[in-house]
Write a structure and sequence with these properties.
Layout: H1 3-15, H2 24-28, E1 49-50, E2 64-70, E3 84-86, E4 89-94, E5 98-103, E6 109-114, E7 133-135, E8 138-142, E9 147-152, E10 158-163, E11 178-180, E12 183-186, E13 198-203, E14 209-214, E15 220-223, E16 226-230, E17 254-257, E18 262-267, E19 296-300, E20 307-312, E21 328-331, E22 337-342, E23 347-352, E24 358-363, E25 371-374, E26 380-382, E27 403-405, E28 419-420, E29 427-432, E30 434-440, E31 454-460, E32 467-472, E33 479-485, E34 494-496, E35 500-504, E36 509-514, E37 520-525, E38 535-539, E39 542-549, H3 554-558, H4 560-565, E40 574-579
Parallel strand pairs: 1-34
Antiparallel strand pairs: 2-40, 3-4, 4-5, 5-6, 7-8, 8-9, 9-10, 11-12, 12-13, 13-14, 14-15, 15-16, 17-18, 18-19, 19-20, 21-22, 22-23, 23-24, 25-26, 27-30, 28-29, 29-32, 30-31, 32-33, 34-35, 35-36, 36-37, 38-39, 39-40
The structure holds calcium ion.
Cofactor: pyrroloquinoline quinone; Ca(2+)
GO molecular function, one term: calcium ion binding
GO cellular component, one term: outer membrane-bounded periplasmic space
Length: 588
């Protein structure tokens, strides 16, 4: 055959009838179709709950390794991915913007893609990646040089790629993209560099940019290449030109509520960290120092990128309490449709799903120093002495008053995703209880340089734990039980109809707890710390569970005294897959 005929035959084989294509319906049914996992979050509402109960409390002791897959090389570092499983292939991303396609039955590699990263990338918090997305015949993921790449599912060949933003200005991308209605939707990272948070939507087939929505007031959105509407009202809550480098990075991606056809993305800290430079240092009657929409959840119409509503968790933010944490759509015990989110600032919020209106909020960590609570109006009741001081008020003008703050800037909960169990009606929140000394310093914006105006040291607060996995009732905020861990928790949680709560620890244990009592029912030592996100699925009549092991992420880089405390932990890079053999499924 000549090359032309070979190409035609190959294209017929690839495009021919019967070739599997992930559809919008597949994405919408990801939670209920237990044969595959085609979205990050095991459903775009991010509940991370599986209706599978083949594996359950009575037989989980029989869960055994099926295969393990090494990411190889010297490029280990933090492995925060969530695997996807589709049409006999598992897809995972790895540190340094790598992708692997693996035979899901044997663990054998099918293809690997390594993004060629330029010198001078500026990832703030390790060279991690949190997973990809699948739609049609393509796999989508973001890279550390702030690109979105579409790969052919079967071959790993690049179909299209596009620049999200300029990595030289501090932009990068690590979150899993979200696909809704044929659009690939991404955020951006770089909130520590004075970038501007934005959400972008591209045609999944062509990569063509459809709309953009900046997160900071004053910036213009776009729709099909034309300016659309301004985000917020210019200078309503930001002084002078500070909004131009105002942060609000959308670095954790978003969720999608199909019932209200709404995307919800979180926006990170306002930049710089030093709140006194943003007019946020003291309370104002007209709330003009709020710095919208930083430290907020923003609801967006997927059709055109217009903002539907917003809820700001930390107005006048001054502790790096990014508002990015995942917003999970759920139905409460009385049948009401709500959202829940556990914020960096230590409070667990419930919002109305129709309009984002505040319903209630409770602390999910102990001894919070910056606010007494959340008022009926949804605004924090500040403890003003808990705010790091203004350096311009200091005698030499170089360093403001240092305060002890809890949670630390790495948060009561950081990126690590929680789970909602439809079986118990509880949220399972991977929290951390730690504090920090924090102070402010003068800073001016410089492209590609850290833009903080703050210094800090993270410290443990309790003898017996930092990590704390809590079962939280979203009706009352009550903690039903708590599982304490020595090191900070930094990986995802998954619940199942079998009554199991799966998560991993930096110490390397992959654990299944009883969802009602928190009792440890099973564990497996994976050899390196777990900061990945577990999944489960069914294949050939058996239930499988997989999780990535490979210690890293922000804690070793930014954790101060806590980093020193856990510096004995080994790096790694192994994807572990477990199965419950059919013969042992009925064992008691
Ligand atoms: Ca931040």
């Amino acid at each position: 055959m000549n090359r032309f005929i070979t190409a035609v035959v190959a294209s017929l084989l690839v495009a021919g009838p019967g070739f599997a294509q992930v559809t919008e319906e597949d994405l919408a049914n990801d939670q209920t179709d237990t044969s595959q996992v085609v979205t990050n979050g095991m459903g775009r509402h991010l509940q991370r709950y599986s209706p599978l109960d083949t594996l359950n409390k009575s037989n989980v002791e029989n869960l055994v390794p099926a295969w393990a897959f090494s990411l190889g090389g010297e490029k280990q570092r933090g492995q925060e991915t969530q695997p996807l499983v589709y049409d006999g292939i598992m897809y995972i991303t790895g540190s340094y913007s790598r992708v692997y396609a693996i035979d899901v039955k044997t663990g054998k590699e099918i293809w690997q893609y390594d993004a060629r990263l330029p010198e001078g990338i500026l990832p703030c918090c390790d060279v991690i990646n949190r997973g990809g997305a699948i739609y049609g015949d393509k796999f989508f993921f973001g890279t550390l040089d702030a690109r979105i790449v579409a790969l052919d599912l079967k071959t790993g060949d690049v179909v299209w790629r596009d620049k999200i933003a300029d990595y030289k200005a501090g932009y990068s991308y690590t979150a899993a993209p979200l696909v809704v209605g044929g659009l690939v939707i991404t955020g951006n990272s770089g909130g520590e560099f004075g970038i501007v948070g934005e959400v972008q939507a591209r045609d999944a087939d062509t990569g063509e940019l459809v709309w953009t929505r900046p997160m900071i007031e004053g910036h213009m959105g776009t729709y099909k290449g034309e300016e659309s509407t301004m985000t917020g009202v210019l200078n309503a809550t930001w002084p002078g030109d500070m909004w131009k480098t105002g942060g609000g990075a959308t670095w954790l991606g978003g969720s999608y509520d199909i019932d209200t056809d709404t995307l919800v993305f979180g926006a990170g800290n306002p930049a710089p960290w030093n709140s006194h430079l943003r007019g946020a240092g003291e309370p104002k009657a007209d709330n003009s120092g709020d710095n919208l929409y930083a430290a907020s959840r923003v609801a967006i119409d997927p059709a055109n990128g217009e903002i539907k509503w917003h809820y700001q968790t930390t107005p006048r933010e001054g502790w790096d309490f990014d508002g990015v944490n995942e917003v999970v759509a759920f139905t409460d015990a009385e049948g009401n449709k709500k959202f829940a989110t556990a914020d960096r600032n230590g409070f667990f919020y419930v919002l109305n799903r129709e309009d984002g209106a505040f319903v209630d909020a409770w602390p999910f960590v102990k001894d919070i120093t910056w606010a007494e609570g959340i008022g009926d109006d949804g605004r924090p009741i500040y403890i003003e002495e808990g705010r790091p001081g203004d350096p311009s008020a200091a005698t030499d003008g170089t360093k403001g008053e240092t305060v002890f703050s809890a949670p630390s800037f790495l948060g009561g909960k950081n990126w690590q995703p929680m789970s909602f169990s439809q079986k118990t009606g509880l949220f399972y929140v991977p929290s951390n209880e730690w504090g920090m000394d924090i102070w402010n310093e003068p800073i001016t914006y410089k492209k590609g340089a850290a833009y903080l105006g703050s210094g800090f040291t993270i410290k443990p607060m309790y003898e017996d734990h930092i990590g704390s996995l809590k079962a939280i009732d979203p009706m009352t905020g009550e903690w039903k039980w708590e599982y304490k861990n020595d090191a900070p928790l930094w990986g995802g949680v998954m619940t199942t109809a079998g009554g199991l709560v799966f998560f991993g620890t930096p110490e390397g244990e992959f654990i299944a707890l009883d969802d009602e009592t928190g009792e440890k029912l099973w564990s497996f030592q994976t050899g390196s710390g777990i900061v990945g996100q577990p999944i489960t699925w069914e294949m050939d009549g058996e239930q499988y569970v997989a999780v990535m092991s490979g210690w890293g992420g922000a804690v070793p880089l930014w954790g101060g005294e806590v980093a020193a405390k856990v510096n004995y932990l080994n790096q790694g890079g192994l994807l572990w897959t477990f199965r419950l053999p059919k013969a042992l499924a009925s064992a008691e």
